[in-house]
Amino acid sequence: MLKKELNIYTFGDLLEHYPHRHIDKTKVSKIAEINMQTEFIQVAGKLMYPEVIGEKRARRLVAQLQDDTGTLELAWFQGINWVQKNLSPGMQYLVFGRTGFFNGRPQIVHPEIELYVPAKADGRNFLEPVYPTTEKLKARGLNGRQLGKLTDTLFSQIKPEHLPENIPDAIRLPLKLMDRCEAVRAVHFPETAVQYQHALRRLKFEELFIAQVRLNLVRLQRHRASKGVVFERVGDYFNTFYTQYLPFELTGAQKRVIREIRTDTGRGHQMNRLLQGDVGSGKTMVALLSMLLAADNGYQSCLMAPTEILAQQHYTGLSELLKDMPVEITLLTGSTKTAQRKKILKGLLEDTIHFVVGTHAVIEDAVQFKNLGLVIVDEQHRFGVAQRARLWEKADVPPHVLVMTATPIPRTLAMTAYGDLDYSVMDELPPGRQPITTVHRMETARANVMDFVKTEITQGRQAYFIYPLIEESEKLSYEDLMQGYEQVKSFFPEPKYRISMVHGRQPAEQKETNMQRFVSGDTQIMVSTTVIEVGVNVPNATVMVIESAEKFGLSQLHQLRGRVGRGTEKSFCILLTGVKASKEARERIKIMCATNDGFKIAEKDLELRGPGDIEGTRQSGALNFKVASIVNDKELLEKAKMMAELLCEDDPELNMAKNLMLKSHLQSQPQKNGWGRIS
Ligand code: ADP
Ligand code: MG
Asked: Within 10 A of 49 (CB to CB), how many other CB atoms are there?
């Protein structure tokens, strides 16, 4: 039962099944004290009149609890027979639970209930632990407090050697962390609330620290074990470009990341780096400079994008930048003609082509390189680890891998989810960008919004209208889009205005054509679903109208907004909603209007949704913490990370005497044993 319901298999598991709260057992309230504001209460009284009433789903066992001030109704919808069998009418019971009102009278549904024994006189267990449990277990009488009794019994037999310390003293003592055995005991059975907080802090730190140590060991192990091509020199390609053709001064962040990449690729081990940069932070230039570095060392590079449009844009942009350089660059996508394709494949095999830009599906499948040294993947969240691995197979010594993503992930999340990768952040935008002005408008103000868009278009700019189409197959939202298109068309009649429409139901070719017309400025308006979300660069577009903005998540809104504000003109993002947006939706929109900073938005997103939902981290087991929270325990996480890094660099095998108990803890963890089994 415990196994299935709570995943408790061993005594160790039971010890780590921490209470979610403690109740002051000495405090027994009066029933008359219950009012609308009461949340949880503990009362004692005589149990009377248990009876089963109601039909079907309303069938329930009710009983009355009476003290000298009033009566409280108790109700059970599950485990009725079992509970009824075990209740003794007329006896005194101690009852705890969340209070509610039913027909104007106070009630507790599925209370925690036991025969009343006044609090122990010895003062021990003054704060009694209450554990998370499940309805099923409760129905069987194993409620949150009885689990505590089990744990209490277990503790009477626990000795410090059963819970050996796993954090080296040199780290633990300066941070004033309780020792492990004491902390586990105190988190279950604290003597005071303050002691409980200390215990909790220690256990949180332990959890974060152990996770960080593991990640660091994996990363360092990879550094040492992997072979990598060596980019030892900066040569003519890089230098000539840098001094003669670089169209702007690099930002500090770009310079820093290039330095990090140089160090990585010079060491003889494979680079596996994640580059996170907010939309518009200039990741493409970092990619190009890295590719030039590869060329200087005699290696080919490939740059992969998730869509044809993006690959095309990268190719056009890079070719322009490289037009006076002796560099061969080519584009390879699904629509590359057979003859051309043959030529490219030959060029890659003979090393006459330095750079290939393309969609990853294409590059992955058929392409052989003579001398591949660097793979750059744009927009990581559409590109899996397995796919990356397949690319490495193409070379004896695996190429360096740089994965770029414009989906900002909060630092704390990245630290835990990607702690085993090398990780760079570009949190700085190029200078001179005008911040995008974001406003929220009700649908009722649509006419004004349209007028505004019209003035922008009259000044020669372009505009996006984005519709939510969560599932491309969803018929309803598809009709919304069509209606929206008609509406936009009636405000912006042809032939004076020209409109492109792009959505997921179109054949790829039509999508490309429509997109291309907007990119080239042939159409002024783009009506689209979120398919344009990633990476598209149309600097002349200055307005983005997001329809039904309440239906989008924060990071998606931010990604979409990143499509404007890419040129020198002032840009605007207008979030249209109905009047009935939910509280959370209004909160999201408020944040969008308040900041353009993707990392701030990602932090908020994490707070609002919790770590489980953040894109790209869902499968990462690294986030399943028992007590720690990457949202609420940021400071502890920072400390844990720093300590873990220092320790691992100092002693990567954990062979020093002071680290041995940590090592044995890590080794003992995967096969949780040594505690025997309970059921
Ligand atoms: P993203 O990081 O979103 O991929 P891009 O690489 O597309 O961003 O860059 C966005 C725009 O900023 C491009 O037009 C690019 O030329 C420009 N840009 C990049 N770096 C700088 C810089 N250091 N100074 C000025 N403009 C820059
Ligand atoms: Mg980009």
From this structure: 11
